Amino acid sequence: MLLTFCFTVNQMSAQWLDNLRVGLESNMAWYNDDKRTGPFFDDENNDGDEHLRVNSYLKLDYNFLKNLTATVQLESYEPLALLNYSPNFDGTNFGIYSLNYKSDLLEASAGHYYEQFGSGLILRNWEDRQLGLNNALLGGRVKISTDFFSTTLLYGRQRVGFETADSNIFGWNTEVDISNIFKFEKSSLNLGLSYVGRQEKTDIEDPDFNELTNAFSGRIDFSQGSFYANAEYVAKSDDVYVFNGQIINNFVNPGNALLFNTGFSKKGFGVDATFRRLENMGFFSEREKTGNVFLENNINFTPALTKQHDYLLTNIFVYQAQSQVIFADPQLMEAGEIGGQIDVFYNIKKGTALGGEYGTKLAFNASYWAGLKGDYDFNNLSYDVDYFGFGDKYFSDISLEVRKKWNKKINSIFYYVNQYYNQRTIEDNFSGEQIKTNIVVGETIYKFGRIGQSVRLELQKLWSNSDNHDWVGGTLEYNASPRLSFYVNDIYNSGDDSSTSENHYYNFGGSFNKGSTRISLNYGRQRAGLVCVGGVCRFVPEATGLSASLLMSF
Known about the structure:
Blueprint: H1 2-10, H2 14-19, E1 20-31, E2 52-63, E3 68-77, E4 91-102, E5 106-113, E6 127-128, E7 133-134, E8 137-145, E9 149-160, E10 163-164, E11 168-177, H3 178-181, E12 187-199, E13 212-224, E14 227-243, E15 246-266, E16 269-279, E17 326-329, E18 332-334, E19 336-348, E20 360-377, E21 382-405, E22 410-422, H4 423-427, E23 434-447, E24 454-464, E25 471-479, E26 484-493, E27 504-514, E28 517-526, E29 529-533, E30 536-540, E31 543-553
Antiparallel strand pairs: 1-2, 1-31, 2-3, 3-4, 4-5, 5-8, 6-7, 8-9, 9-10, 9-11, 11-12, 12-13, 13-14, 14-15, 15-16, 16-19, 17-18, 19-20, 20-21, 21-22, 22-23, 23-24, 24-25, 25-26, 26-27, 27-28, 28-31, 29-30
């Protein structure tokens, strides 16, 4: 199919080619049997042990006129999608198609589109192929904008695989630039109001909840000089509790969210702090799909507000936002989360004792998350929480990063992380531990030879209070040029964890870049656990095999 497409493109006129933009991505994997971890078998699909999996995406954008654009995305999951992608991604079909108009005053879309209101607490639609997530809306959207005012109206059904959810989504958003209206010269002030409604029919007789669930959001954003602050409050109408895909008709509660962020920055110093409280803020296009492992049917966006670490061992115990009501048993009851994080950046000046010839960069981060404190009644299915009360601790993360340039050829990073991870509440794991870890990382880059040639060495160590986890890891990377690079890494657990103990989770491979084309190849063993992008995580199973990817655009 792709060869036919490429041949056709070559026959097009120059004018058509000037108006056409093409993006191609293909991610392939061959999963093989592993003597150490056992034979490969995927019980999510009827095909069972199909070793070859391929996800491919072909996106075409064509400009008919100055303001009119058509978009089509053809997707293929043949013979099967990569491991732990939703079974709704099956076969080959059109995943996205839309017709879009844009001018200075008006934007309009018919077909699939992506939208976000405010921070996304009541609505965010986006695509992330690494996570297997695409929750675009299929319908229509109109946006009118002026220098000081914008308003958006939308309707749609949320994409689920190649189909749509069995519900209707309505939305309205308005942004007002107060500073532009009153001609503020030294400050900026913006206000926002949003509404999102989900209408889903139910087969339950005499339901204690309405088919239409409403969510409202109000926002304010202020900045002056080096200071900024913004706040958002969300109120969600009564929504029914769902447990293991079953609606609990007599357990209905409203939801709300509060988000506050502030910061200050100047040359060589910056601080940013965020506070968030979520209560019953799971919001799904189909109620029965609440909390599904494939991240489908999410209307809103509640990422984990924690440090996004770059290293293998710092990403073993990763926090996921606890936005939903959980009444699993009398010892595991949740209504949401409360907490926040703070970032501090400081550059030690050049020429000082600690700064040296090139200066030294420091970055400190701390985050803390807990459940909502209150009275929980499992037998009567009810709870009453304190608005600013901190309950059981879920997670904490404290990190310090030191970046140091020694000379023109050598740079180093020293990294320390202290974590607390409540496995029982975060993973809803009844036998879960309260795990405390200390992690140290050392990384050095040595540049030599021609431009772009370097070697990077990275060493990591994790200690914990759990006999199950005692990890060590390392990475060696060689960049032959700005286009060509190779790497090898490995992590190893000498603890007693039955699923990971004394297994080497190694990977080696490389990549080649030229212009807008990138090719990569990798072979190795994948540890079972969470893969996270931007604070959103999905579980991936243990597997061993060869993977390759191709990205092109023209």
